[in-house]
Amino acid sequence: xxxxxxxxxxxxxxxxxxxxxxxxxxxxxxxxxxxxxxxxxxxxxxxxxxxxxxxxxxxxxxxxxxxxxxxxxxxxxxxxxxxxxxxxxxxxxxxxxxxxxxxxxxxxxxxxxxxxxxxxxxxxxxxxxxxxxxxxxxxxxxxxxxxxxxxxxxxxxxxxxxxxxxxxxxxxxxxxxxxxxxxxxxxxxxxxxxxxxxxxxxxxxxxxxxxxxxxxxxxxxxxxxxxxxxxxxxxxxxxxxxxxxxxxxxxxxxxxxxxxxxxxxxxxxxxxxxxxxxxxxxxxxxxxxxxxxxxxxxxxxxxxxxxxxxxxxxxxxxxxxxxxxxxxxxxxxxxxxxxxxxxxxxxxxxxxxxxx
Length: 356
Ligand code: ATP
Hints:
Strands 6-7-8-3-9-10 form a 6-stranded mixed sheet, sandwiched between helices. A 5-stranded antiparallel sheet has the order 13-12-11-14-20. The protein has a 5-stranded antiparallel sheet with strand order 15-19-16-17-18, with no helix packed on it. It has helices at 44-52, 94-104, 109-122, 138-150, 168-185, 196-202, 220-225, 230-235; strands at 6-15, 18-28, 33-37, 59-64, 67-68, 79-82, 156-160, 188-193, 205-210, 213-218, 240-246, 252-254, 261-263, 272-278, 284-285, 294-306, 311-317, 322-327, 341-347, 351-355. The protein is built from 8 helices and 20 strands. It has 2 domains: 6-233, Rossmann fold; 238-355, CATH 2.40.50.100. It is an alpha+beta fold. Bound molecules: adenosine-5'-triphosphate. Residues 15, 18, 20, 38, 40-46, 194 line the site of adenosine-5'-triphosphate (ATP).
């Protein structure tokens, strides 16, 4: 990797006794689409606002293109922000909303016309330049807010839940549009969301945040396949999370050290309590075809859930644990009834042992 465009180093933000952000360090590459993902209150917006310069850090440093931003005011940073609530000027037309920034920078009129036309074209809104914000739908207003943010070609675009106010269908369409826009512009995007699917669809890398920290930073695939903690496994995608214990012989046992032996994890180490994670799509019903390396369990079918593209089977194990298996076929569901005896298995390589 080359020189990062943004480097944050042990960035901390305190409000009285509340630590909104705790010693966060990370680097963003030029042209990257990074999502900041986490539940409400985990510090995503605080990190974004620190980078934008709307608030000052309690400790730590932000460097953009090799220059420390600590004393640089927001309007002199090479960044621009798009908010959830659009923040368009209601008394100005679309054109004048877009022209506002360049005009303040005393750009010549013909040049402004050119910039406005370009920015509107980027978001497919050429026909709307004479309208007022109140004459636009939510999705259209957000497109205008976006085009206003990119008109002066910032190096970095900061997006704070920009699709949060839109209905699900429009949000999904805008996700694809935003991803395309990012590819076209080659700007660096930092995108705050609490929606894991949104992050997976758009971002090159995802920073999963919790309690003011980045818990894991990686590509969507890395985070989905190799979550570093129960917290991340639970946040991204569906997961079966089973309390287990590794006994003194290195066997993983369901529940505590008297529970059913599952397998011997490679990274067994000392006796300890752990969480076993296996994704529902990796849990298969029936006996494994080849005997090698599979974990086999028995239980009874508690629920069958039709999910359109397939079926979810909720299985209660004899030990009291519950496991969800997801099959992309609906065929099996017609042969099984609630209470039926079920054998299920998964390949050992699909399970992950997470430290508590
Ligand atoms: P959301 O998804 O709800 O916007 P977030 O992850 O963006 O949440 P932040 O807005 O960054 O969370 O807030 C992080 C923590 O800092 C929260 O506990 C919040 O209450 C606190 N906090 C944020 N701003 C202030 C402030 N101005 N004064 C006091 N506490 C604040």
